[in-house]
Amino acid sequence: MRYILIFLFSTILFSCKKNDDDSSGDTNNTPEARLIFKFHFDSTQTRLGNFGQPVSVPAGHGAQSPKFNTMSAHYIELAPDSLTLLGGGDVVYRAPEVNTGGSLAIDFSQAVRAPDGGILFSIPLSQVTPGTYKWLRISLAYQNYDVNYRFIFNSVTYDAVATVASFIGFNTYIQNYTIKDSSIEVNANKLQGYWGIESTLTGFTYLSQGQAPPGATTVPNPLSLTSPVPAGSCVVTGKFDTPLVISASGTTDRTVTVSVSTNKSFEWVEHSDPLYYEPLAGDTVVDMGVRGIEPHVQ
Description:
Blueprint: E1 34-42, E2 61-64, E3 67-79, E4 90-94, E5 97-98, E6 105-107, E7 119-124, E8 131-153, E9 156-167, E10 171-178, E11 183-191, E12 194-201, E13 204-211, E14 235-246, E15 254-261, E16 266-269, E17 284-287, E18 293-297
Parallel strand pairs: 1-15, 6-10
Antiparallel strand pairs: 1-7, 2-16, 3-4, 3-8, 5-6, 8-9, 8-14, 9-12, 10-11, 12-13, 15-18, 16-17
């Protein structure tokens, strides 16, 4: 299938290097400088479509900006310029994969789930190819966030908060996952767009699962004309605010904060009040894709 093409560009998994000198008496022994990746979730950042252009919520749809708890990624690539094809840059990270579910899939049990400001991944600078990089590609895999929803029962309106677990990677093998307090058993592969939702109100816990239609998950790529990504992947592309320059002799940590646009990223087909997600009224989730990234270099 087309989405698997992304993962044929590189098969190398990166690991941390141990210091070659284990002597505790060496006063010159200092930690090796690293390239560090962090997430920041921003509901005010520009809302982009698949081609990296600003877009509004379509007519007949409702949407809201969730409160993000954690996010994980499957693939990180540094690209020198806008003509660098997918896989042609420096692939610095690729999460573990398995064939347990019958086809190649991200192993959710080993996913690193980072909160806002938390470290997603780091690598010694010595393992990053020296050069100047203008673009970042990051394949997002999992999201966990809170949304507001409403339901009406016996003519009484209830407003509550629900936690959503959203799997947006190309294919994910899931043994089980915890949405908020409730654990869901799966033991199977799930394609991009699978989700689970949990909410508790007046002592009753509401659980539901679903699958967004194929191709419905938004994956912003401003380089779609010169450097496309496979359909069904979640490789989001963003331009560094200032080019990331990696030197062969770098001695200080470099941090890339990946600012993720969550601007009305939770979207549904509306059947009631467009200001509220109302699943019992027929509102149907269609898109949980992020709305762009802005990588910032420090």
